[in-house]
Amino acid sequence: MTTRLTFKTLSSDVLHHVQKGETIQDIRKSVALFLKTEYWHIDIVNKENHFIYDPNTKSDVLHDPFHVMVGAKERPTTGQITTTIPDIIWEYETEPRMILSCGHAITTDNLYGFIREKVLQNEYRLFCPGKNDFGICDQEWDSVQVLTQSALSPDEYIFFSGKMSFNFLNKMSNDYIKQCPGCNFYCQREKVTDSHLCCIKCSDTLWYKFKFCWHCLNHWTPEHKCSVEYSDNVAEIQKQLKECSIMTLDYSNMCGVPSKRLCPNCKALLQLDQACKTMLCIYCKTEFCFACLQKAIKGKLPCGEFDQRCVVAPIQSTD
Q: Which segments constitute the RING-type domain (predicted)?
């Protein structure tokens, strides 16, 4: 029986070993002791699917090696313009506040807490929650700027910038994002009606504009005839459903779960981005089980809690 586990931080490829504990919380404490920091600065993360493991989860779900995000011990306002304006999160805050692009003020710790909460809720755009004369400010922040202002550690920057990109791809892939068939680079079309895309990466390599069809992914030419119906991309969606990877859900240890599903309510194509079976459709906000596809009733899944097994539904059909 394995009594030790291997880990590495997100910003390093150096492997370390710690004693295996019963829960994620136990391992956080072991890692913190090894790295000579406090355990609340340590998060155990899933690098592939960009989520943080719950401290109460059994440690058996971890891969070997697993990945660790080491948080910043302090978040100084060095290099930032500070102010005496009240903090938008807590108006009685006495720590130095910095000025945001919208004119409101916040401490680095409160900014980090706000960003962490929103990004872990699968948001990829950040809006100011401060108040003004007309209600909520709601001005969109530049993501790179506020990530820098929150004084992230190297590990935190890797995780949260990656998570925001991951959130963006998941939310936009149905309408705007496709992988180039030549290099697998993610390409974005400007309008939902555009029938083809240009891959910047392939264009740089090939010395000419490499374009491909949005629907069938074949090389685009002026005389291109798409093999997929323009008005309805059913064939491609069915292909994605059939050819998607099969996953094991960490929390419930259920195997054989397709990584892509159609929302049982609005039929939008969704991709699994977390360790549990509970899914909230980003389009119609329907909550359902990603394994058995049952809809939640009054906020609860009929098939049990997030860590309970159920019968995995077969690959769906677009019919």
A: 84-310
- DSSP helix/strand/coil, 81: coil
Which CATH number is 82-168 given?
3.30.40
Helix axes 154-172, 108-120, angle to 10 degrees: 40
Strand 97-99 to 105-106 pairing: antiparallel
Return the residue matching tokens 């990109």.
Answer: 165
302 prior amide bond cis, ω within 30: no
**Residue type at 35 in one-letter notation:** L
> Hunting for tokens 């054989």 — which residue is that?
256
Please name which of 172, 282, 305 lies closest in space to residue 291, comparing C-alpha atoms. 305
Instruction: Give the integer Cα–Cα distance in Å for 76 and 109.
Output: 9
| Distant-in-sequence, close-in-space partners of 217: CB < 8 Å, separation ≥ 6 | 178, 181, 236
Written as one string, the DSSP assignment of 35-70 is HTS-GGGEEEEETTTTEEPPTTSBGGG--SSEEEEE
> What is the three-class DSSP state of 187?
strand
pLDDT per residue rounded down to tens, the chain (319 residues): 568 899 999 999 999 999 999 999 999 999 999 999 999 999 999 988 889 999 998 998 898 899 999 999 999 998 889 999 999 999 999 999 999 999 999 999 999 999 999 999 888 999 999 988 888 999 999 999 999 999 999 999 999 999 998 888 777 666 777 888 888 788 888 776 678 899 988 888 888 899 998 878 888 988 887 766 444 567 778 888 988 888 888 878 888 999 999 989 878 888 886 678 888 887 777 889 999 999 999 888 999 988 889 999 999 987 6
Return the closest-CA partner of residue 125 out of 135, 115, 134.
115
